[in-house]
Design a protein that fits this description.
The complex is a heterodimer.
Chain A: E1 4-15, E2 18-29, E3 33-37, H1 44-51, E4 59-64, E5 67-68, H2 76-82, E6 83-86, H3 98-108, H4 114-127, H5 143-155, E7 161-165, H6 173-188, E8 192-196, H7 200-206, E9 209-214, E10 217-222, H8 224-229, H9 234-243
Parallel strand pairs in A: 3-8, 3-9, 6-7, 7-8
Antiparallel strand pairs in A: 1-2, 1-4, 4-5, 9-10
Helix pairs in contact in A: 3-4, 3-5, 4-5, 5-6
Chain B: H1 4-48, H2 52-66, H3 70-82, H4 88-114, H5 117-125, H6 130-160, H7 172-183, H8 186-215
Helix pairs in contact in B: 1-2, 1-4, 1-7, 1-8, 2-4, 3-4, 4-6, 5-6, 6-8, 7-8
Classes of the chains: A alpha/beta, B mainly alpha.
């Protein structure tokens, strides 16, 4: 049995009157890639953001690597170091070069010395295929390059889990592939990943489990084969036929 | 009235006096802007902190300063601080700093809030604290955006420093009024002092523009 990296029990989240997550249960094991799909407004991004406490839950339990995290008493900064996140809009730091973007957190948070952080940052940029862009400012990069830098930046903290919030949704179609390739490589290296995406090809190919969310709930989940080819729920069928 | 040759004559012969006043004006402006920027930053952070009590303190401060004339504030500081043995220069400096601080607070608040929310989230998601993300990620971007309105406020601050003449500080404007009434040639001295302010403002504008260019490198 693989180690349990994330366990979510009866998670609830509301924004004012709006109930965005209603009793969500999910567990993610080590090295697994879990892909969350569903229409916009179904709660998948909110679920992801609850996992690293960018949104604070209203009820239920979040267990990260065997430890229940209570946002009131836990040092969330420490938890977030173990749970990296990649955003739809990259959110690179525009006033810092690509290299500085990647080095920033290891130097400031992990107190790594600059030479060492630089060495690691350069190696990470090599890994995402952007060694030649180290001294460039983000504004000079294409969307796909920006997202790959964002992945390198998150990896620089050596997280145990990576969360991807629609990482290719803001990209021109021809740039989607390079980002997915980077993510696929990461999955093959054994990174535990939770990915919100509309890229069904990626889900089919890379995911260990696909989770269909609807109306703040997990409606159906299963191996990509089962869920895509043989969905049990009518809603899942309708959703899949609407996007494929 | 506009005898240019006469004005030039007076300008040349009076410049040692005006340079003294200019020096005081510059010191007063520099000190009050520096302290005012610090005050502005603190109150801007209070306003965006989401902590009710800090919010209230900032709102009351800004309402008081914006709701009363600067000249009243300067006199209150002057009489209030004189009792503590603080000089006219420093009471004027504090008064102007408090005044500028309220406006600068609003400038900083606006520019901080104009930085994309995703920047804070990105910082936090990397394990950086709120304070660290604010200092390293948000404020450098906010400051860059604040620079044009900040430059504007600095120019207002420079010109407002002339009100310190009311508390017997021998800055630029008070030189003009005392010389004017001594010689009964008020208009000439007023034109000359206006000229000094104009030059200062133009130089200052140039400086702010240079800084803006330098800061926008790479983007």
């Amino acid at each position: 049995m693989k180690k349990e990296m994330i366990r979510i029990e009866n998670l609830k989240k509301s924004f004012g009157e709006l109930e965005v997550l209603k009793e969500v249960n999910l567990e993610v094991h080590e090295s697994d890639v879990v892909v969350l799909i569903g229409a916009s407004g179904s709660g998948k991004s909110t679920l992801l953001r609850c996992i690293n406490f960018l949104e604070i839950k209203n009820g239920g339990k979040i267990v990260i690597e065997g430890e229940e995290i209570d946002p009131k008493s836990h040092n969330l900064n420490e938890v977030r170091q173990r749970v990296g996140m990649v955003f739809q809009h990259f959110n690179l730091f525009p006033h810092k070069t690509v290299l500085e973007n990647v080095m920033e957190a290891p130097v400031l948070v992990k107190k790594l010395n600059k030479a060492e952080a630089k060495k690691e940052a350069i190696s990470l940029l090599g890994k995402v295929g952007l060694s030649d862009k180290a001294d460039v400012y983000p504004a000079k990069l294409s969307g796909g390059q920006k997202q790959r830098v964002a992945i390198a930046r998150a990896l620089a903290m050596k997280p145990d889990i990576m969360l991807f919030d629609e990482p290719t949704s803001a990209l021109d179609p021809e740039l989607v592939g390079e980002v997915l390739a980077t993510m696929k490589e990461l999955a093959q290296e054994g990174m535990t990943m939770v990915v919100v995406t509309h890229e069904m090809g990626f889900a089919k190919e890379v995911a260990d489990e696909v989770v269909y969310m609807h109306d703040g709930q997990i409606w159906e989940r299963g191996k990509p084969d089962e869920l895509f080819n043989n969905p049990k729920e009518q809603r899942t069928k309708d959703f899949l036929s609407s996007i494929l | 009235m506009f005898d240019l040759a006469h004005i030039l004559d007076v300008l040349i012969e009076s410049y040692p006096l005006f340079i003294k006043g200019l020096w005081i004006t510059l010191k007063l402006t520099f000190v009050s802007i520096l302290i005012g920027t610090g005050i502005g930053l603190v109150f801007a952070l209070f306003k965006i902190s989401g902590i009710k009590i800090l919010n209230w303190i900032a709102n009351i401060y800004i309402a008081l300063i914006r709701g009363t004339p600067l000249i009243v504030q300067i006199f209150i500081f002057y009489f209030g601080l004189a009792e503590l043995g603080i000089s006219a220069f420093w009471s004027a400096a504090f008064g102007l700093a408090m005044h500028n601080g309220a406006y600068i607070a609003e400038i900083f608040r606006g520019s901080i809030q104009s930085v994309d929310k995703g920047q804070m989230e990105a910082g936090r998601s990397l394990g950086m604290t709120y304070g660290l993300t604010m200092r390293r990620i948000i404020l450098p971007q906010a400051f860059k955006r604040a620079l044009p309105p900040l430059g504007n406020q600095f120019i207002i601050g420079l010109k407002d420093s002339s009100l310190a003449s009311f508390i017997a500080l021998n800055e630029l404007f008070s030189i003009a009024t005392t010389q004017g009434s001594r010689t009964f040639d008020e208009m000439t001295y007023l034109i000359i002092v206006g000229f000094y302010y104009l030059i200062l403002v133009l130089l200052f504008t140039l400086l702010v523009n240079l800084l803006e260019k330098k800061l926008s490198a790479g983007e």
